[in-house]
Amino acid sequence: MIKCQFAGLSARSAIINLSDCLTCRQLSWVEVQRRLLKTKNARGSKEDPTGDQGGGTKRPRESASEDRESRREAPNVKAAKQTEQVSVSVSQGEATKTSESFGHWSQGLKVSMQDPKMQVYKDDKVVVIKDKYPKARYHWLVLPWQTISSLKALRDEHCDLVKHMQEVADQMIQQCPDATSLRFRTGYHAIPSMSHVHLHVISQDFDSPCLKNKKHWNSFTTDYFMESHDVIQMLETNGRVTVKEGTSELLKLPLRCHVCRRELSTIPALKEHLKSHFPS
Q1: Which has fewest Cβ within 10 Å: 49, 232, 238, 252?
Q2: How far is residue 196's CA from residue 109's CA, in Å, rounded to a whole number?
Q3: Rounded distance between C-alpha atoms, residue 242 and residue 11, angstroms
Q4: Are the CB atoms for 138 and 182 separated by under 8 Å?
Q5: Residues 6 or more apart in contact with residue 197 via CB below 8 angstroms
Q6: pLDDT tens-digit series, residues 93-107
C-alpha cells in the first residue's frame, strides 16, 4: 500500500492528483483541507531539527467509521461557527444602539446636572449648573429634576415649576459679583439642541472664547431666545408654549450688535466691537 500525500491514507498505487484518490473524493472539502494542513505541519516538524513533535512517527490508520464521523462533524462545526458569528454581530448591534441611546451628545445635560462639580445650586425642584461651553462671562442653566424634554412638552401644570425656575435664576443674578455692572437675560432657546428643558441665565457681555459663530450669536440676540416671562405668560394663557414658524431661520441673520444694532461682518470683528460696550 502507498500512502496518499493528500488525504494521509493508504492507496494501492501512487497518487499524483487529488482527484485520483478515492478516499479524497469521499471526504468533504473541509475535511480534506484539515488533513492537508495536518500533513504539512507533520512534514515541517520532521524537517525542523529543533522540533519536538516526533516527526518520524507514522500516523495510525483511521477506520472507515471515523471517516464517516468526520464527514458528519464538518457541516455541524461550520454551522456552529456561522451561528456564533451571527450572535456576535447581533450583540454588537444591540450594544451600539444602547450606547447611542444613553451616550448621545444631546443627552449631555442629564449627565451634567448629576455632576456635583457642575452644580452651583440645587433644591428639591431644580438644579443650577455652569454651562460647559459658556457664551459669556456668566452663563448658567436652570434645570428641573422632573424629566421634561423641551418647551413643547410644557403644559399648564408646569407653570409653578417654570416660575420657580425664574425665581432661582433671579437669585443667581443677585448673587453675582458683577450684577451691578452687567446686564443679564433669562430665557429659553425656541428650538434647543440639547434634550431636557433648561433656562439660560446669561450676562450680556458675550465675552467668551466659546462664542464662535453666527448661530451662537443669533441664538441669544434674536427672537430665537424666548424670554422666561413670555414663556410663563404663554403657559398661563394657553397652557402650552408656541414656537413661531420659521424661527430656525433667525439663526442665519446678519451679525448685529445687540446694543447699538451695528452690523459686523465676522465674529472677531463683532467681539472687538463689543469691547467698546463692555470693557474688561
Answers
A1: 49
A2: 7
A3: 88
A4: yes
A5: 143, 144, 148, 149, 150, 151, 153, 154, 188
A6: 444 443 334 456 557
